[in-house]
Structures are given as structure tokens and as C-alpha cells.
Design goal:
- The complex is a heterodimer of chains A (115) and B (114).
- Chain A is built from no helices and 11 strands.
- By secondary structure, chain A is an all-beta fold.
- In chain A, the strands form 2 sheets. In chain A, strands 2, 4, 5, 6, 9, 10 and 11 form a 7-stranded mixed β-sheet that branches.
- In chain A, 37% of the residues are buried.
- The termini of chain B are far apart.
- Classes of the chains: A mainly beta (115), B mainly beta (114).
- The interface between A and B is medium-sized, with 31 and 28 residues.
Chain lengths: 115, 114
């Protein structure tokens, strides 16, 4: 089973709202990722967690706050977003982080619209 | 610097026709190469990957890819395209230095004509 699940599928929020995206995997993977994807573009890496610790933050604005409560769960807390943050947010996981040959498995994404 | 190039932004093929999507990479050592497919509004699904060994790799949904070191290419092929193959296809390479990062190409949009 190579399934990564994400909720919600769609989210509409105002610029003053606080919301959270959730990602879950039960493959025993110890690395989890958040990506942002704009239309017709490849995914852009935002954060990497390895063994529940933040390992990479790709200079993401502080209005995005990741959290990894346990090895299966990954959250992305959103606050005071801008309309340009509207995008598809993808979660991914891999067995471990830091190896070139690691295969990342992606979830279906959350389509976010910021009004 | 490492890079991945997908020369074709958009390709249209007729249903039942063969397909080849091009991917060229820039990398000094043996690359770890991936092809992902993304249906509209969906996440990325792994089609196949190449690490070493046999240069012809079989994947899911009837896809295959051939690694050619001399041409720095990893082209994706399918002998007979189905309408459900219409999607965005991304080629990617694992970034060296054990960063765990993927370098993606810009993607190729595949349209299938009835």
C-alpha cells in the first residue's frame, strides 16, 4: 500500500482565517514533505520532516506553519494567507530522507483558494 | 547544476497511437530518475523509476522508459495510448548530495484525441 491521504480536498479561506491541512500515511515512512504547486508548474518543495523533526524549510513565509505530531501525521497550519498562496498543496512521504534514490509517494493534494 | 528538461510542453496523440515523452537530464554521476503522472486536480502518481541495472524500465499502466547515458535521456513510452492517459507528466531526478530533494522538469501535457 503506497497511499498518502490528505484532507480536506478543497479549502476556501479569507485572508484573516486560520485553517489547517492534514496529511496521513501508514506506510511506516519516516520522511514527510509539503509541496506547493501552481497550475501547469512542477511542485515546489516547502518543508521536509525527518523522524518528526523539521529538516528543510525552503524559506517559506511564516504564515505557513508545519507540524509533525507523530510519524504518520503531517499538518500545515495556515494563517493570514495572501491570494497568491492559492495553489494545490501536496503532501508526500518516503521511507527516509536524504538519499537520492528515495522514492516519494504523493497524496491527492488540497486545492486551496484564498479570497 | 543539475537540471531536468522536458522539451515538449504539450503533445497531442490519437487514441491507440504510440507515445514517447522526452526527458533530458544534466547530472555528473549515475542519476536516480523518476516519471510521475498527474491527472487533472490530482496528486502525482509514480509511473516508474530507474536506479541502476537494466536500462529499460517497466512501469504501471503499460508505460516503459529507457535510460540512455550517452544521450542523457530517460524517455517515457507507451505502445498504445488510451484516452485515460491524458494528463501532465513530470520527469524528475534525485538531487545529489543526499539532500532528499527531487529536481522536476517543467512537465509535458498529454492530450489524447478520440
Amino acid at each position: 500500500d503506497t497511499e498518502v491521504t490528505q484532507t480536506p480536498k478543497h479549502l476556501v479561506m479569507g485572508m484573516t482565517n486560520k485553517k489547517s491541512l492534514k496529511c496521513e500515511q501508514h506506510m511506516g515512512h519516516r520522511a514527510m514533505y509539503w509541496y506547493k504547486q501552481k497550475a501547469k508548474k512542477p511542485p515546489e518543495l516547502m518543508f521536509v520532516y525527518s523522524y518528526e523533526k523539521l529538516s528543510i524549510n525552503e524559506s517559506v513565509p511564516s504564515r505557513f506553519s508545519p507540524e509533525c505530531p507523530n510519524s504518520s501525521l503531517l499538518n500545515l497550519h495556515l494563517h493570514a494567507l495572501q491570494p497568491e498562496d492559492s495553489a494545490l498543496y501536496l503532501c508526500a512521504s518516503s521511507q527516509v530522507w536524504g538519499l537520492e534514490q528515495e522514492t516519494q509517494y504523493f497524496g491527492p493534494g488540497t486545492r486551496l483558494l484564498v479570497l | 547544476a543539475q537540471s531536468v528538461t522536458q522539451p515538449d510542453i504539450h503533445i497531442t496523440v490519437s487514441e491507440g497511437a504510440s507515445l514517447e515523452l522526452r526527458c533530458n537530464y544534466s547530472y555528473g554521476a549515475t542519476p536516480y530518475l523518476f516519471w510521475y503522472v498527474q491527472s487533472p486536480g490530482q496528486g502525482l502518481q509514480l509511473l516508474l523509476k530507474y536506479f541502476s541495472g537494466d536500462t529499460l524500465v517497466q512501469g504501471i499502466k503499460g508505460f516503459e522508459a529507457e535510460f540512455k547515458r550517452s544521450q542523457s535521456s530517460f524517455n517515457l513510452r507507451k505502445p498504445s495510448v488510451h484516452w485515460s492517459d491524458a494528463a501532465e507528466y513530470f520527469c524528475a531526478v534525485g538531487l545529489s548530495g543526499n539532500t532528499g530533494k527531487l529536481i522536476f522538469g517543467q512537465g509535458t501535457t498529454l492530450q489524447v484525441k478520440p
